[in-house]
Each structure stands twice: as structure tokens, then as C-alpha cells.
Design a protein that fits this description.
Helix content: over 70%
Largest sheet: none
Number of helices: 25
Number of strands: 0
Distance between the termini: 43 Å
Radius of gyration: 29 Å
Order of helices and strands: HHHHHHHHHHHHHHHHHHHHHHHHH
Number of domains: 3
Shape: elongated
CATH class of the largest domain: Mainly Alpha
CATH topology of the largest domain: Leucine-rich Repeat Variant
Mean pLDDT: 85
CATH architecture of the largest domain: Alpha Horseshoe
Strand content: under 5%
CATH superfamily of the largest domain: Leucine-rich Repeat Variant
Low-confidence stretches: 1-35
Length: about 425
């Protein structure tokens, strides 16, 4: 085989398949879950060691011959080979004097083998991990939070501990918030604490994004009101996360979005309209129908200004409206013949983002405009609209095929 590799007779894809097969063959006998590849090199010797020897690798962190990776792999071996006996040992190691030992023990209690245990088995060491979330060392706290997350238990105690970690303000707050953001659901009582923390995190956009996502997991109208109110505290980053969260909440988001709409700046009003369009319930469509005309009138007023810069602001509003700019289609098509080349460009750009196929004949004529920049905008608009239309047709065709529908469902989930 080596000669064939040197001669180039084997193709790269064949080599990759061979390597994958070798890794699978190297899995220790008796393992119920795949051994992490990074542990493969040292795992063979650990598979032969008794529990005491494996725990010593975690405990004796002063041993220069034992690396951090050795400790992680020893923890994997402990939970793989001695799942029942290893748990009390690892719980005891969570109280070790060396912070790295405590960190490795926390990691081991949330590794692949621990995550594969039954709910009853996990409940035996979950309290110890929750207690370790108060460890004086931040790395131990983070390892404990990640292990709790891997165990996939979202009990009242877990949610409370994660909220405590977020409110504590340490470096682990992002990991705790991420765990809540990715939970399948959260209890209703968590809304108030999440809302209070969100209010205090006005200068921390990364944390706010995670908290906004966590609020959606409560599934209650009060959470939608909190998320909607956060839009009125702009930070330049979490606005899109809040709008995305509200879209996921569906009908529950319609009343709070309507409530804050009059207080919002024009740019945010446009985003709210687009979110209501995405929600697409009867109540959401009614709100779009009620609110959109005022925005269009404002755009038209700007477009009719004698000043070029003001006129361009009007076209910018229509461009940001995207598909909602359909009522303005006649005005946009008429603007493709404007004497000002910049206005013709702006009109083409707005039509590009509107994705309206009715604009294609006019845009194809504009593609022959004497101005090079106008032609370029027209061609980009044509390409974008045609791509969207073809994608829509492919999607419709796919919905008629059972296997294709399965793939679409997998991607959406």
C-alpha cells in the first residue's frame, strides 16, 4: 500500500476513506460511543489502565509527563470503561486543590459517555456540576456549564443556576446564556430574570443577542413584549437578533410590534413592517396593510423633491422595503426614464431588492442605457430577480417530490 501511495496510484478521496476506516477500527472494544479523534493516540494505553491509575492522571497535575490532553482522554476512558464507579471519583475530584484537576473532572462528567447516560444516571452527578458552577476558578465554572449543557437536562434547577451565572457577570455568563439560548424550552418564570438581565446588559451586544434568543424559548406573550421593547434601545448589533426572535414568536409578536411602531425611527419602522410580513398571520397582514401607506407616502414626498439628494432618500426607503415596495412599482418603473442617471440607478437598485418580476421588461430596456453605471445596476437587478424567480420555481417543483420535501424539512429544522 505504501508503494501505491508513493506512486500516486491511490486518489486522495480513497486515502481519506481508508483513514476513516482505520480510525473506526481503532475504537476500543466495548466502547459504546465514538472515541474523540484527539484521544486516539493515547487512548490505547489508557484502555488498559485501572480506574485508580486513570484518576491519578487527572489528580496529579504536577506530573510533567502528563499533559492537559492526557487528562481529558483519561476522563474519557474513565466514563467509557467504569461509568458507575467513575462518577463518585470524578465528583470527589471536583473538590481537588488544583483548579486544572477540577476542570478536567467537570469536563469528564459531560463528555460523550456521560451525555449518553440515562436521565436517572445523569441526575446522580448533575448537582455536583451545578455546585461546581460556583467554583472560584472561571475555567472550572465554564467547564461545568458546558458539561451541564451536554447532558441536555433543562430542569428548574439548571435554569436557575444558569441565570445565576449570567447575573454573576463573570466570563462564564456567555456560556450560560448560550446554554439557555439553545434550550428546547424555558419556564415562564424565567422571563422576568431574563428581562432584568437584558436591561442591565445595554452595553454588551453579544450577551443581549443570547438573552433575546433565550426569551423566545419561553413561548409566552410577555417575552415578546420584552424583546419588542429592546428594539427601542439601539446598540447597532442586537436589533437584527431581536427582529429574528420576534419573527420566530409568530402571532405573539404582533401586538408588541404594533405598540412600539409609533415610537420607532423610520428605519426601524421599515424593519418592523418586514418582520410582520414574515410572520404572515391574518393580524400581521392587517397591520402591514394599515401601516405601509404612510411609509410609502413619505417616500413619494421625498422622491418629488427638487433636490437630488432628497429624492435619493425616497428611493432608499423603497429599496429597504424590498417586496413591500410593490405598490410603488409604477413609480419605480417611471423613474427608470428619469433624466438624472443617479435616479435611474437608484430606481434599478430598488427594483432589484423588490424581486418583482413585473419589472423585468423595463429593466431589460434599461440595460441598454448610455450610462455604464446605469447599465450595470440594471443587469444586477435583472440577475437578482431572475435568480429569485428560478429559485421559487425550483422550490415549488421540489415540494411535489417526496424525497425533496424530506430534504427541505431537514434543512428547516
Amino acid at each position: 500500500m505504501i508503494r501505491k501511495l508513493k506512486s500516486g496510484e491511490y486518489r486522495i478521496d480513497s486515502i481519506l476513506v481508508l483513514l476513516a476506516a482505520m480510525l473506526c477500527a481503532a475504537q476500543p472494544a466495548g466502547a459504546t460511543s465514538p472515541v474523540p479523534v484527539q484521544c486516539m493516540i493515547v487512548y490505547a494505553k489508557y484502555w488498559q489502565l485501572p480506574l485508580d491509575a486513570l484518576s491519578s492522571i487527572l489528580r496529579n497535575r504536577s506530573d510533567q509527563n502528563s499533559s492537559y490532553q492526557d487528562g481529558k482522554c483519561a476522563g474519557e476512558a474513565m466514563m467509557a470503561r467504569f461509568p458507575r464507579q467513575a462518577v463518585p471519583v470524578l465528583i470527589d475530584l471536583l473538590k481537588a486543590s488544583t483548579s486544572e484537576t477540577r476542570q478536567l473532572a467537570a469536563i469528564a462528567l459531560g463528555n460523550t459517555y456521560a451525555a449518553d447516560a440515562t436521565s436517572k444516571q445523569k441526575s446522580e452527578w448533575l448537582p455536583a456540576l451545578l455546585a461546581a458552577m460556583n467554583d472560584p476558578d472561571v475555567n472550572v465554572r465554564i467547564a461545568s456549564i458546558e458539561s451541564v449543557s451536554h447532558l441536555r437536562i433543562v430542569s428548574q434547577e439548571v435554569v436557575k443556576a444558569m441565570l445565576d451565572a449570567i447575573e454573576g457577570g463573570g466570563g462564564e455568563k456567555y456560556f450560560a446564556a448560550s446554554m439557555l439560548a439553545h434550550a428546547p424550552s424555558l419556564p415562564q418564570w424565567a422571563v422576568k430574570r431574563l428581562a432584568d438581565t437584558l436591561d442591565k446588559a445595554k452595553g454588551d451586544a453579544d450577551l443581549r443577542v443570547l438573552l433575546l434568543e433565550a426569551l423566545t424559548k419561553t413561548g409566552v406573550p410577555e417575552a415578546a413584549s420584552v424583546v419588542a421593547d429592546s428594539l427601542l434601545v439601539p446598540d447597532g448589533y442586537s436589533e437584527s437578533a431581536a427582529l429574528s426572535a420576534l419573527a420566530k414568536m409568530g402571532q405573539a409578536a404582533v401586538p408588541p410590534l404594533s405598540r412600539i411602531y409609533p415610537k420607532a425611527a423610520l428605519s426601524l419602522q421599515i424593519e418592523i413592517l418586514r418582520t410582520l410580513e414574515e410572520i404572515d398571520t391574518p393580524a400581521a397582514r392587517t397591520e402591514v396593510h394599515r401601516l405601509l401607506p404612510a411609509v410609502l407616502r413619505q417616500a413619494y414626498k421625498l422622491m418629488d423633491s427638487p433636490r437630488l439628494t432628497v429624492r435619493r432618500d425616497g428611493f432608499s426607503i423603497l429599496q429597504n422595503l424590498q417586496e413591500l415596495a410593490r405598490p410603488a412599482l409604477p413609480r419605480l418603473i417611471a423613474a427608470l426614464k428619469d433624466p438624472e442617471s443617479q435616479i435611474r440607478q437608484d430606481a434599478a437598485r430598488a427594483l432589484r431588492d423588490s424581486k418583482l418580476t413585473e419589472a423585468l421588461p423595463a429593466l431589460r430596456r434599461l440595460a441598454k442605457d448610455p450610462d455604464e453605471l446605469v447599465r450595470s445596476e440594471a443587469q444586477m437587478a435583472i440577475g437578482n430577480i431572475e435568480w429569485e424567480e428560478n429559485s421559487r420555481k425550483i422550490h415549488q417543483t421540489c415540494l411535489q417530490d417526496q424525497e425533496c420535501r424530506k430534504i427541505l424539512n431537514l434543512r428547516s429544522n
